[in-house]
Amino acid sequence: MFKHILVPTDGSQLSIETVRRAVAFAKEVAAKVTFFFAKPDYPVAFYGEGALIDPTTPEKFAEMADRQAQEILAKASAVALEAGVPSATFDSISDLPYQAIIEAAGHAGCDLIFMASHGRRGFSGLLLGSETQKVLTHSTIPVLVYR
Question: At what angle do helices 130-138 and 97-108 cross, to 10 degrees?
Fold first, then answer.
C-alpha cells in the first residue's frame, strides 16, 4: 500500500501527536517516513512558543529558523527511531507552506502525506490548519488528516 510517508510538523502539541500516529501507521504498513518542516522566509514576523522574535538581520533570522527546524525534526526522528521505523528529515524555506509540503512529498518520492488538521496559532499555525486544506486541495497524492 503506502511505502513512503511525508509527515509535515511544526512542533505544536497536535503536530507531535500526529508524528506519533504517523510513525505507528508507518510501522503497521512497513513504510518509511520523511519528516518535513517549512521554515519561514525573512522578513516575515516569526512567532515561536508565543513570543515575538525580532531578528535584526536576515542571517540571524535564518540561523534561528535552522535551529528551530533541527530541534523539531530531531524530536520527530527520535519517535521513529524508538519505534524502529526508518526515517529521514527535510526542511525548506517557503512563504507558501502548503506548496512546500507538496513539493517535499514529490522531492522525497512519498506516496502519502500524513498531517494534522490544525497547528498553532499565529505564524506557526501557517504550517498546519488552513495549510492542511490547501494541501488537500492541491496535492495529487493521497493526504491522510489526523485530528
Answer: 50
Q: Judge contact between 95 and 111, C-beta under 8 A.
A: no
Cα distance between residue 4 and residue 64, in whole Å: 29
Cβ atoms 6, 104 nearer than 8 A: yes
**pLDDT tens-digit map of 114-124:** 999 865 454 44
DSSP for 21-47 reads HHHHHHHHHT-EEEEEEEEPPTTS-EE
Query: What burial letters (b/e) apply to 47-62, b meaning 16+ CB within 10 Å?
Result: bbeeeeeeeeeeeebb
State the DSSP H helix or E strand holding residue 113, giving kind and residue range, or none if neither.
Answer: strand 112-116
Query: How confident is the prediction for the chain on average, in pLDDT?
Result: 87
Strands 51-53 and 87-93: unpaired
Q: In order of start, what are the domains of the chain with their CATH numbers?
A: 4-146 (3.40.50.620)
